[in-house]
Task: structure prediction
Amino acid sequence: MVDKWTLVSQMVADLHREIADLQKSYEHAKDTKAVSPGRMQSRYDTMGVEAAWLADSLANNIEEKRRSVAALQSLNLATPKHRVVLGSVVGIGPEYGDAEAYYFIVPSSGGNRYRVDGVPGDVLAITVHAPVAQAMIGTSLGDYVDVRRDRVDADVIKVIA
Result:
């Protein structure tokens, strides 16, 4: 059995580290804007304007990461084991053989791989908007899904947790 709480806590910890790094960059961009001259010294002097744009972009990114943390923390992990839904951990592989890929379907912040006890490989966090997640959502254990991984065109749902 896969401990989805561990997966979520790993993802939230990663997001908090990213937020801290972004916050440092944001503070630096704000400071750069503050120390730049109020008026452009020449037509090529765009440091203050660019620092302001960077600070705005970083602030938006920080807010997006915070929304991702909230979405992950409010995720219902008591998902049904008979059907793939948001919050499911899914293994897929050939019809006769072991699962070759494991996915954790989350509302946001997909793209990272995580090691979890009980899973022989890495679990890739994917958002519900990812094509592979769209192919799997609503399927059941043993269903065929078309995910076009490597050389395999169709795989079978192996594990749902």
Observations:
- The radius of gyration is 21 Å.
- The chain has two domains: 4-73, 89-160.
- The chain has three helices and six strands.
